[in-house]
Model the fold of this input.
Amino acid sequence: MFDYHMHSRISFVSKEEPAKMVEAAVKAGLLEICFTDHYDFNDVYKEKQDLFTLEDYNEAYLSLRSDKVKIRRGVEIGLTQWNGREIADFNERFNPDFVLGSVHYVGGFDPYRTEYWQQNGLNKAFENYLLQTLRCVQAQDDFDVLGHINYVCKSPNNPLKKPLYYSEYPDICDEIMKTVASKGIGLEINTSGVDRVGDFLPSLDYIKRFRELGGEIITVGSDAHNSERVGQHINGALSIAKEVFGYVCTFQNRKPIFHKL
Ligand SMILES: [Zn+2]
Ligand SMILES: [Zn+2]
Done:
């Protein structure tokens, strides 16, 4: 019924027209969607950034309408230890409904790519991603929900091809989720892991623990980069939200709206 993570051609990784994704959302029976385009910052090489302009963003979304599905303006903003001012500046200028904060760079490399695994080795690849996430959530406050907390495991370069579970690094995961919860920030259940590694990002074990640690905000998103994937596996993610929280959240003007499930 909701999909709060998708990328249109405004993101460097997608070529899809926003209107096509809206059409797909209607077809999938979704009631509300949020575009969360990449506005990303490399944590080491500041000249390597994936940004878009306010002009392009407005041109893509301002005139987008549907009487069947609510459309929200969002962003997937890249969290680093250093970009607090840039995040605040984005939020002020773009005025998004929803800010998903995600960690895509560790030591200058995206875990999605081969170089990251060469740099870290299999032993440290998972731990280093989680430690970087911890540093980022400690440093940043101006985002609404932490995206795909165990993103590192969905990389095509992860030789294990399996989810990264809470029980593998419980202490670091606790610190991340405690920090996020104490700041009133939520967690996302991202469905893009289901086809890649066989489970949601993150799986039920994290979501249960997040609630125990005081987390209150939960969103679901497909991370679709094309219209075919809009709303994919969303019902499974909603079942987890229902089991643990009894509700799921959407956002308007950066304020959470709670929907009973
Ligand atoms: Zn992401
Ligand atoms: Zn994404």
